[in-house]
Every structure is written in structure tokens, then in C-alpha cells.
Amino acid sequence: MNDWVIAIIKVVFIWVWTLLVAVVMTWVERRGAAMIQDRLGPNRAGPFGLFQPLADGIKLFTKEDIIPANANRILFILGPILFSLPAFSAYAVVPFGDKIVIAGKEIILQVSDVNVGFLYVVALGSMAVYGVIVGGWASNNKFSILGGLRSTAQLISYEVPWGLALLAAALVYGTFSLREISIAQQGTFLGFLPNWGIFRQPLGFLLFIVAAYAEANRVPFDLPEAESEIVAGYHTEYGSMRLGLYLFGEYVNLCTLSALMVTLYFGSWHLPYLNMEAFLGPISYGIASFLVFFLKVSFFLWLFVWVRWTVPRFRYDQVMGLGWKSLIPLALANLFVTALAIQLTV
Amino acid sequence: MTMDLLKGVSNCLGPLVVASGEFRGDVTVEVPKARIAEVLARLRDDPNLAYDFLVDLFGVDNLDLYEKAAKPKKKTEGEGDAAEEPKPAGPPPPRFEVIYLLLSLSTNRRLHVKVRVPEDDLSVPSVTGLWKAATWPEREVYDMFGIRFPGHPDLRRLLMWDEFPAHPLRKDYPLEGRGEERILRYE
Amino acid sequence: MVNECVVNAGHSTGDYVTINIGPSHPAMHGTLRVIAQTDGETVVKADPEIGYLHRGVEKLGEHLTYHQFIPITDRLNYCSAIANNVSYEMAVEKLMGLEVPEKAQLIRVIMTELARIADHQVLVGILGVDLGAFTPFFYLIIQREEIYEIFEWYNGARLTNTFGRIGGVEADLPDDFDARWRELRPNLFKAIDETDKLLTHNRIWMDRTIGVTAFSPEDALAWGFTGPCLRACGVKRDLRKDEPYGLYDRFTFDVPIGKNGDVFDRYMIRMKEMEESIKIIDQAYAMYQEMAPDAPLMAKVPKVIKPPVGEVYHATEAPNGELGFFIKSDGSDKPYRIKIRPPCYMVYQAFPELVKGEMIADLIACLSSLNVIAGELDR
Questions:
Q1: pTM listed for this prediction
Q2: Mean pLDDT of C242-268
Q3: ipTM attached to this prediction
Q4: Choosing among A313, A314, A318, which should be mutated to test the C contact, i.e. which has the most C CBs within 10 A?
Q5: How much of chain A is in helix, strand and coil states, percent to nearest 5?
Q6: Of A271, C11, C150, C205, which is the most buried if we count CB atoms within 10 A?
Q7: Which residues of B touch C245 (CB under 8 A)?
């Protein structure tokens, strides 16, 4: 088989997979919220309302596309694209399984194993802020610009602890490649713990997850779109599929962030104390590693939903305070301690 | 008890009390309009009365009462000779009233203070200097009756929009309005 | 020009940006509007614009008979219509000098306290929603639904109850009230408890509410605060205790007070008051059960109500604070003048003072915690 064909298949697969997860996530979010809140949620379209995202998609597509009279047309159209493209592209370097051997050819379950893997993720993550600020500014609406402003400040502030947490992880594994990091998490740590990143970087994980929630604009960091304060933040003026792109981009972001958490801190496709590769066939191992990975990602996706319907929202200054006064010093300390530990052990 | 209260109020205010009355335990004293701020300040600062809380203030338009009294008409049996009943002869009584509801937090006693406002001098000194609570009620009275409150920091219409041409709670304003909503069209 | 209002509100003065919040905005309950001057996220000046729900209730009152006005009072604070009905009926009864039978008064107490619980549930729920915590809202609203079931069972309406008549109440409690209350009571406690667990000691919740828009008791009194907002400032004043009307002097209950008058205190007062209300209902219901089944429910009231000439003011402790009705009668079958003293009107006028220097998010939190209901605010 041609390498190109394989690459295209992988791209298409990951594209469809993240889209599907994003679509299903909208359903999970609503049904999950309903479950938490003692109500039913959408249950009309299809079994358990499973076709609800489909109905929503059709609705978004067929709605009138409105561009406000005083909006900057070009930027207004550009905004959602700038937001969703990086979100879709970011997953390219995140693995979704180990490898699968078909017809003697080993296929790595990852679109591209870039050796600066998570720098790429961080870089694309910061690209998303352009979509937000461009959309917020182009709408020519004060709530939008406030949302864009909040989002920009928040994303930039939380990129620092996020990046520092990642850096500490990179120190531990000595590589930026996400696949190499995944492979390195096999086996046990200190003899009895699974050799997962969380046990090597507990504080790092905490920083990462907090920053990830802020990066994804999720509760309790959902101020850029705080409904009760600034209507819908940067996408106040958006409707139809442009709004859909923003919402979609967000769910794809969640997907990427969850996959990143699993890759870095939760042993990627490894099961604890169990080497699947040893007793599974080449194809079944590939599928099993994908499923294990997906299961772990699902948990973190659910965690996003769970947290969203449990806690209130921060205030703008509290978010900034938490980011700059707590997370960044902690991240620096974490980096320092990690570096020291590595220096002493190596 | 109400007699005590009335006595206390007249002791405090002296000749400022123009008229006083009592109905179902609610004591009302009428004072001259120009000195309302002084009266309320005295009632508030008097250690025995201590009417330190302004519950509300609002206007009353007595136009209909006077028209009814002016017209020769058979008396309905419920009507007594209350303080509001004007004398048929003499100059026309002031059309509007502004009533201040006071409350003493320490003794839990209430007092209605009333001033009469003639139609040709629609102004009552503001009491916002005594209680900030008077801010919106005074605006509302201005809005609804057209009575001005000199000394009010921000006397604008409160409930109706700024361009509204009438004062809707006056008795000569019809219930259905005069079609002002048509003015509100955006051109 | 497309929309003059928006353009006018868009003028920036100096270095500040004017933000027009409302009257159509997710956090503006009903139709409130605040024009805020902001410096970044900080509110420099907030100017509440009211009157978007002004329906001329007081003017209407002058053209309706005394009984016809009762349904209008439903539309004041629509979260607790029964409290308004009872307050108005008591004012007319005072005007007429009527003595309401004890059993009717007990039914009134039970229903008013249920309405108070419903009102507080809405407030706490909405406060949570406005601060981003969506879930407690549902825990509370589900139980409020059960309260509405009782109302519906009693007089056929859920929200606008038109409860009671001048001189008493229209009907005895429904037969299954006992069963319904027995079922509802623990659920109410459970909902309050769950909300308490989700919010009260939540770090984010505390950060968002403690110290936010705090108000001193002196200021609160000068601005005419009453009810929970005043009690949150630490002033122990509750008309049910201080000027007991109806049968309230027979019940034992606490008046919870706060310390700082901030959003957290206003929230806590409501949480505690719900429990106190349940206590009152328990006592009132126990007293009700001791009454004879055929005890009168109505005082002797003439068919056409024509009170004597005079003016009265009667105030009750509505869920929001002192709800007063001033009625001036000219001896006819219609009130000559009705003046309603809505509790949130007085509280809301201090809003610019409360939010000055706070952030936009605090403005929303403050507005929610004051429980400003456009229906009774604009009348």
C-alpha cells in the first residue's frame, strides 16, 4: 500500500472521528446535564434522542445566515474559520492508538508523528485565540468585544502554566514526540504503580487540567461566553452554521485536550499492569489500543460535562489572579523540582 | 395609643400641624408644603418619636373628589364628613396631595404626613437630603402627577419615557391614554 | 437610524465604554435595563432604567372594584402572587374594619409561606444560574413545581393564583393537602440541603459572593431597604415579628440576619428563611387541624364592597420585604387611589450605589440577589 493512501485514510479517519465525537458530545452534554439535573433532556429524535445533534446540525445549516449591518464582513466570516481550523488540525499529532499491522505493513495510529508534537499543539492552541478575537471584534457589538477580550486575556494567561506543565512532562520523558511519550508509559513505576505520567507529574497534571479547562473556555472558566453577563460573548452576533463552527470547534478542542491528557498523563493506550501487545494479534491489538485510548478520552470528555454542571463561574479578575498568582508560580516550581529530580537521578 | 401619638407629634411640631386625623389606627398629620423637609427632619430627630425610616411617598389627585362635591348630587350613605371633604364656598382647595409614610424602627409606629399642593404651584421641597429612599418615589410622583421636587439630584421621569407628554395618574387623564404610544414609532 | 435607543446608549463618555444591558438580556429578569459605564470590566456608573413593564396598575385600580383588583395584584410579584393577594386583601379589610375568621387566616398563613418558599427558591436558583451554577436551579424548581401543584389543587391556578377574598378565603384546604404536604416537606428540605451542599461552601461560589456589593445597615435603612436585603445587612427587622399581622404573633420562628449585606448574606438569608417558613407552616397546619371542620372561612362581607371614606396603609412581609398597600376610599365601590409600595422598588433604587466600582459579573450577581421583579417594580 502506498504511504500516501495510508496517510489520507488516517487523515480522513481522524477527521471523521473527531467530528463524530464532537457531535456525540453535544448529545452527551445535554443528556448528561439532564441526568445531573433530574430531568430528561432531548429524547424525541431517535432512540434516547441520539439523532438530536443531527437535527441541530440540519437546523444550523438551514437557518438564515445573518451578517450584522455594521459588522466587518470579511473578518466576520473569517472568525469561525480561524477558530475551527486550528481545533481540527491540532489533533494531527495526537495519537489515537498504538499501531496496527495490516498485510505486513505497520501503520502507526497517529496522523503524523512530529518530533515537536506538543509544541505543535500549543502553537495551534494559541491560534484559536485569533478566531475568538477576530469574531468578537468584527461583530461590532460590545458584548462580543468584551467576550473576545476576556477570551484573549484568559487564553494567553493560561497558556503559560499550560506550556510550563507540558515542559515539565517533556523533561521527564526527554522528548516532544507524543508517540514516544506514549510508548514510554508502559510498565510500572516504583514497582507497583502503572508507569503513567500522572504519577511522575501529579502537580503537572493538575496544572494541565486546570489550564485545559481555561483553554477550552469551559466552566468554571467560561467567561468569554458567560451567558448571564455578556449574552454569548464573542459569538453573540453569530447564527446558523457560523455559530455551529464555533460550537463545533469547541467540542473538537475538548476532544484534543482530553486526548492530550490521556497521552501525557494517563498512559495513552496502555492498560495498567497488562501488556496487550503480548497476547493480542497484530490487528486486534491495534483495535484494542484504539479502544482503550478512546475509553480514557471518553472519561475526560465526561469530566468536562460533569464539571460544567457542578460549579459556578469565576469572575474575570479571579481567573486572572488564579492564573498569574497561583498557577504560574506553581508551574515554575513544578518545572524546577522536576529538573532538579532529573538532574539528581540521571 | 393613637392619641398619645398625635399628642407627641403635635408637641414636636407645634403650630406646623395644620390638620390631623386618625382612621383605623393610621394617624395622618397635615403640614405646610414649604416646610415639609423641616417637619420630617424634626420627626426623625425627635428622640421620643424617632421616625427614622421613610417607607414611601406618593401623590394623590383629588380632582374627582372636588368635582363630585361641587356637583349637586345626593349623598351616598357611606360618606361621612372626612377631612378631605372640601367646603363648597371659598377658594378651590389644593388639588394634589403628597403623602409621606414614616415608620419608627424602635417603636414600630407609623405616621402619615400629608402636604397639599395647589395646581398653580406644583412643587414640594425634596426630602432626598434626609432619606435617599425618596429618590425614586419623588421621580415617580413627578412622572405621574407633574409635581416637581426642587433639590432633587436627578428629577427625570421614572416609569414613562422621557418624551411622554402627560402625567398619567392625574384624574383627568383617561384610563386608555390619549394615543401617546403612536409617538413612539421609530422614524 | 435603525434603533435610536441602542445608538444613544452607545455614546462613550470620556474613557469609559457604555454598555447597555437589557431590557432584553439573559440576566435581566423580566424587562430591566441597566446602562452601565464601564472602565474595562469595572462598572464606573450604573443607571437602571425602569418602566418597561409599567402597566398602570395603580391607574387600573382606580377603575376597578375592590374585588376586581385582586387578580391585578397577582401580576405584581408573580413569583409569589399569593403574598400580594393576601397583602391587598388585608389592606381592604383594614379599610373596612373586618375581622377575618381564624381558620381563613391560618389558610392564608400556610399559603403565603408556601409562596415565600417558592419565591426564595426561584431567587436562589436564578442567582446560581447567573453565577454559572445551573444545577441547583433545577433541584429547587422541581420542588417549586410541587408547591405549585398544591396551589393548583387549591384554586386552579399555578402562577397567578388570585387567592383569597376580601374578608377571608374562598375555600377550605383540599382534602389531600395533608398527604401532599407530608410528601413535599422532606423534599423541600432535601432540595435546600442539596443546594446548600453544591453552593454554600463551594470555593468559587464564596469567592463570587462574599464581600460582593456589601452594604452597611445605615445605608440600607437610608435607602429604604426592607426584607431579606435589609436583614442581610444585619438589621433584625421582619414585619411578621415586629408588627405582627394576621396570626403571626402565635408562631415561633427565627429571623435570620446576615453580617455584611453582601450577595452571600442575601443568599444565606433566603436559604434559612425557607426553613423558617416550613416551621411556620408546620405550626399553622397543626393549629388548622385543631379547628372545627365547619369553622367559618369568610367574615360577613356585603356583596358590594363600599368602604367608608378614609385612607389606610397596610404592610405585610412579602418574600421581598415590606409590601404595602395604601388605599384611599371616597366611599364608592372603587378605590379612589391605590398606591402599592413594592419592596424591590426601594431596594433597586440603591443599585447604582451598590455596584459602583464592582465588576460587570458582580453587577449581575447583585441584581439577582436583590430579587428585583419587574412586575412589582414597574407596576
A1: 0.85
A2: 88
A3: 0.83
A4: A313
A5: 70, 5, 25
A6: C205
A7: none
